[in-house]
Amino acid sequence: MLTWTRGAAASLATAAVLVATASSAEAATVALRRCAPQSKQDRTRCGRVTVPLDRSGAVPGTVGLRVRVLEPRRGQPSGTVFALAGGPGQAATPLIKPIAEMLRGPLRSRRLVTFDQRGTGRSGRLSCPSIARARTPRQIDAAVSECARKLGPARASYTTAASVEDLEAVRAALGVERIALFGVSYGTKVALDYAARYPQHVSRLVLDSVVPPSGPDPFMRTTLGSIRRVLDTLCAGRACPFTRDPAGDVAALVRRLARGPLRGSWHDGRGVAHGASLTSEDVLMMLLAGDFDPIMRASIPAAVRGAAHGDPALLFRLAAGGSAGLDAESGDSDALYLATTCADGGVPWPAGTPVEQRPAAVDAMFAALPSSALFPFDARTLRRAGVDLCRTWPESPVAQPAAPLPDVPTLILSGDDDLRTPRRDALTLAAALPSARVVTVPGTGHSVLGSDVEGCALAQTARFFAGRSVRDCGGDPTFLDPVALPPTRLSQLPAGRGLPPRVGRTVAAVSLTLDDFGMVFITRLAELFSGSADGIAFGGLRGGFARIDRRGFVLHRFTYVPGVTVSARVSARADADDPLVLRIGGAGAARGTLSIGNRGVTGTLGGRRVRLDDEFEPTGRGAAAGSVAVTPRPLVAAVAQLRATLASPDAPRSPLLPPAPLPGPVGLGGAGDAR
C-alpha cells in the first residue's frame, strides 16, 4: 500500500464503483478475448478501447483503456453493469471479482464491465515516485511540483470530465444503449457527471457514499460537523462509561497537541517497542480510518480518553496501524489522484489564483471560518493535514463543464457512521434530485455495500434494480460494543469469587488479554486474505507479540494489563476439543499455567490450585478505588470466542473491496513515522 505521511494527503478518495453501457463517435467496437485467467473459474473477457488523450486536440496522443467484461452465467444479458473504480487513482479491472460478489443479485441477469480509468492500471498508469518519498511540507510541495513538470501539458487531461467521456466511449464500443450507474464515493461524482452529460443513456443511479457534485470540501466541514453525532451514537446508553462527551475528549486532546506532539511507543510483531510521536492530524486520520474499520471506530473513545489521562498506549497502537492508500502493485496511481484532484476544483482558493498568491488565499479563507465549523479540530490541524496539497500544481483548478442534475430514479446509500462522505451530504444531494430515495444504514461506515454486515443495503439495492420499493435499514446502530478503557494497573481489576485477590485479578487480566488478542487479529484479517504473506504478527498493547500462520498461532508474553503476560502455542493440527494451555507470567501476576477446555479452567496460579467452571464471574469486591469500569468475561467464554474467531474468522468489515484511499486532503504522520 502507498501510505502518505503528515500533510501529504493519503487523501486518496475512496474506492468507487459505477454501472453503465454505450454510444460515441470516438469508438466503433471493442474486440473481447478471454483474459489471462486468474483461476479456472475466471470467465472474464478483456479488450481495449482507444480514446484521445486530449479531446480538444491541444495535446497529441491517445490512451488505450483496458476493459474487462463478465457475462451472466445463463442466457442473454438484460442489461450491463459498468464498474469504474475511483479514488481518483484506483485501477478497476483487478476488482471485477469482488464487485461481482457485491452486486451478485443484479448481476444474475446482467453483464458486468470494468475498465481502468485513464492514468491507472493498464490504461497508461501515471507514476510520480517522488510523491511517496515526501515527508515534510517542503518535500511535499517539491514533489507535487515535480510531478506536474513530469506529466507536462498532458496533466490537464486527467479530469473527471475526461473520465466521463471515456465512459461514454466504452459504452459506445460495447454497443449498449441505456445504462444503470452505480458509484461509490468519488465514483458517485463520476456517475452524476455522466448522467448530467448523457441523461438519455441512463436508466437509474445507485450512489453509495456520495461525494457532492461540486467535489469534496477542502475544509471537510460536513465531516468535522458529523464527528459528535457519530461518537455520541457509538457511546449511546452509557456504552462508554469512562466518558460523557467523546467528541469533547477529542477537542481536549487537540488542544493538548497544539502545545506539541504526544510521545509514546507501540510494539511490533516481534514485541519490539518503537518510540513514536502523535499529532492532532493523526487523530483526525484515525477517525477517518474508522470509516472502513469498525473495530478502530469502536476503539477511538477509549484511546482518546486514555491518552487524556496519561495512558496513550491504545492511541499509539491505533496510529501505528496506518491508513489506507492506493496500491501501486494493483495498478493504482497517486499521480493520477493529484492530476484529477488538483484540476477538478476541490482546493481552498478561487479559480485563477497564481501559485505565489495561494498561501494568502488559504489564510483568508481560514480567517473567514468560525472555529465552530472545524470542531473538534482546528485550523492548525487542517493545515498540517494538507488542505492545500495542490498549492504548487500549476493549473488548479481547471474550469469544468457543468450540467443540471438528472431526473432519473436514484438510490442513495448512506452509512450512519460515515465521516468521509457524511449523511448530511447524502440528504443535501437527495433534496436536489427529483427522484431520489435515501437509504441509511446504522452501524455502517464508508462504502455501504462493502461494509454493511446485516446485508440490508445489498437487499435494497437488488430491490431498486428490480424496480421495487426500498426502505431504510434497521438493526443495532452499535453492533460492536465500544472498546473498554484499558487497565493501567492489575489492582484496577475485580477479583473472582472464592479466589485470593491476586489470583482472581490475574484470571480477569488473562480474559481481557485474550479478548484483546482476538480483536487485533480480526483487524489484521485482510493481510491473511490477500495472500501476500504466509502469516501475520503483531505486538501486544504493552509488550510481547502474537503470530498466526499455517502452523498455528503463538502468543509470546502478550501483554494487555501491565504486569501480566500470556504465552501459548497451538498447532494448526490440534483437535478443536484439545484444551488451550496458557503460561501466565509477569511481575504483577499470580504466575503459573491454566488449561482451558470443555470442562472449565484448571491449573496453578501463584502456587495455588485453580479450578473454575463456566459459571465463574469476577466480582468487584476488593478492587482498588478508581478501578476501570470494565467487567472481564468469564475466561471460558473468552477462550470459546477466541477459538471461534481463529477457526472461522469473520471480521466485521467487508472482504469484497480493499480499504480505499481517503476522500479529502488528509494524511497520517506522527506515529506513522516509526512504522
TrEMBL record:
- Keywords, alphabetical: Hydrolase, Signal
Q: Where is the signal peptide?
A: 1-27
Extent of Gly residues compositional bias:
666-675
Q: Where is the composition biased (Pro residues)?
A: 655-664
GO biological process per UniProt = proteolysis
Q: Please state what the protein is called.
A: Alpha/beta hydrolase fold protein
Query: Which residues does the annotated region (Disordered) include?
Result: 649-675
Family as reported in the entry's similarity comment: Belongs to the peptidase S33 family.
Domain Peptidase S33 tripeptidyl aminopeptidase-like C-terminal per the UniProt entry, residue ranges: 386-466
Q: Which Pfam families match?
A: Abhydrolase_1, Abhydrolase_4
